[in-house]
Amino acid sequence: MTRTAAIAHAQDYFDSGRFKDDLARLVAMPTESQNPERAPVLAAYLETEMRPLLESLGFECRILRHPRAKGPFLFAQRIEGENLPTIFGYGHGDVIRGLDAQWSEGLSPWTLTERGDRWYGRGVVDNKGQHVININALRSVLESRGKLGFNAKYLIEMGEECGSPGLRELCEEEKALFRSDVLIGSDGPRLNAERPTVFLGTRGGVTFDLSIVAREGGHHSGNWGGILSDPAIQLAHAIASIASPSGQIRIHEWVPRELPPAVRKALADCEIDGGPNGPMIDPDWGEPGLSPAEQVFGWCSFDVLAMKSGVPETPVNAVPPSAWARCQLRFVVGIDPHEVIPALRRHLQRQGLGMVEVTLARDEIFNATRLDPDDSWVQWAVASIARSTNKTPALLPNLGGSLPNDIFADILGLRTIWVPHSYPGCSQHAPDEHLPTAIAREALGLMAGLYWDLGDGGTPPL
Questions:
Q1: Rounded Cα distance, 2 and 5, in Å
Q2: Which residues is 274 bridged to in the sheet?
Q3: What is the mean pLDDT of each run of 10 residues along the chain (462 residues)?
Q4: Which is the CATH superfamily of the domain at 3-202+368-454?
Q5: Which of 135, 332, 355, 400 has its CA 20 to 30 A from that of 201?
């Protein structure tokens, strides 16, 4: 059999309707890791779906657990030879909350629904659809050649949407078991729907709360307004001191000294496009002098995710007793994540806003990572995808979002190459999450081509 036959085999999996049937069954499992009541479903996803699938490909499977984790982990491996490269795959079967009532009429997070050229359902892109594409691309190579031609290890977790608690410790404890040469995984979006994409790391993320508690209870604004401090006003000033009216970050420890030339070069031909339903880019927002791609993939961003003071649903004439905001910094390589909160506290003290309390909103902090775009394995992967699709892939130094990539890069010491099977306008983490069918079919073919090339003996030296 040939490379072309393996790609055709993978795309037949889509054309026959089998991929849609398999994905529909997985979407129907409400694997919300943020909902404690779903714990039995998290375990069932691995035991009843992923384990049989991987065992049918000759993988040895075992369930791993860690006290800090939201759910179990499935580890699978297929070892074909001591001198062959070992490729580490990763996916997560948990999903963000379904938000059932907010989906469009006729759609449900737990039912795969086809409308035009899109499939709707929670997890179709984040991340059930993506790891099912990769595993079945492995199947296509195996059934076409009779072997993979490389060693494969796969880890599926069930707590990524909660920040992957326990994953870091598990990788430390199982470093020998997980030992591999290169990670090839799929998560996150492409640069746009039409262009295959490779990204080499992720921005880091720190989520934190700003809060002011001035006193117990509100007090009539006619009697006390003007002589009681207003926490909402103070918090507004605190936020305004962090970023300019155009979103430029004002804390110097939160931004890199410069945009590295290799990053600027890689992003020179990258244009962000969320598709017809994507938001319009605000050209004057953020760091001056950077292109939109450089802003998202090469720089840091600060956002206020939510804020509250008083009772917004039923305002009353009272000076509020407290104010709160949840904020987030996305940061790139060169920013020390452990310095983010101390730097913010020092900044607020300098601004005379020491009354603002700063607390981490979650224990897990993903560090920023970025594999060298000139690495030989990166160039090899880009060439393989170009050969399969007849398109020049976008090469992003890192994803704009955050994944536990630093665990794989820093603890397991892996080169990290991500090939996403989604696009920016897919509504992941929102109602109406969807997967364009054209991306799914193309992804099955390009991953089959990539896995075929891995076993063909022409990979770069390790």
A1: 5
A2: none
A3: 96 98 98 97 98 98 96 97 96 97 98 98 98 98 97 98 94 98 97 95 94 96 96 98 98 95 91 82 94 95 97 94 97 94 98 97 83 94 98 94 91 98 94 98 98 95 90
A4: Zn peptidases (3.40.630.10)
A5: 135
